[in-house]
Write a structure and sequence with these properties.
Strand content: over 45%
Oligomer: single chain
Helix content: 10-25%
Number of domains: 1
Structural class: mainly beta
Radius of gyration: 23 Å
Largest sheet: 6 strands, mixed
Number of strands: 10
């Protein structure tokens, strides 16, 4: 074996050993525990949607205007809307956005969330959900565990 081959083998061995090293620097950037609730409906009618959210002794009401999708070929569950932030007690409580349904993003991991939905002041239902919490690793395995909660609410 030549010196070049020995040197190349040592370099490859060093690269393999360093790849297995768990001492690489880690951060918790992007590690925010939150819960997403997807509100789904077979059809989203045009109107003003008001959504009351309660969890962990916090309450907020979000409002969003949902226009009807004018594309006749579009899936009936697709809506076009806007994004809004809702505030409770001076802190950002939830973000509501319209994307193929309404998505509520809540800071934290509440065990139980109560949601009431109205369109143009007519009740569409009140729901109690227990989000499923799963771990995720935004900075790679071994760099801290973050958690996300998720639940789906079907609006009749």
């Amino acid at each position: 074996m030549s010196r070049i081959q020995i040197g190349a083998a040592l370099c490859i061995l060093a690269a393999v050993v360093s790849a297995c090293d768990d001492t690489h620097p880690c951060t918790l950037i992007g590690c925010t525990d939150n819960t997403s609730l997807r509100l789904e409906s077979a059809t989203w009618e045009q109107g003003q949607y008001d959504i009351d959210v309660s969890y962990d002794e916090r309450n907020a009401t979000c409002s969003i205007a949902v226009p009807v999708d004018q594309d006749a070929d579009a899936d009936a569950g697709v809506i076009r809307g806007e994004q809004t932030h809702c505030v409770s007690d001076g802190t950002a409580l939830i973000r509501l956005e319209a994307r193929r349904g309404l998505i509520l993003t809540i800071e934290g991991l509440p065990a139980i969330v109560q949601v009431a939905v109205r369109r143009d002041d007519a009740s569409l239902g009140a729901f109690t959900v227990r989000p499923t919490v799963t771990p995720w690793y935004p900075n790679g395995a071994g760099c801290g565990t973050c958690y996300k909660g998720a639940a789906v609410i079907t609006i009749p």
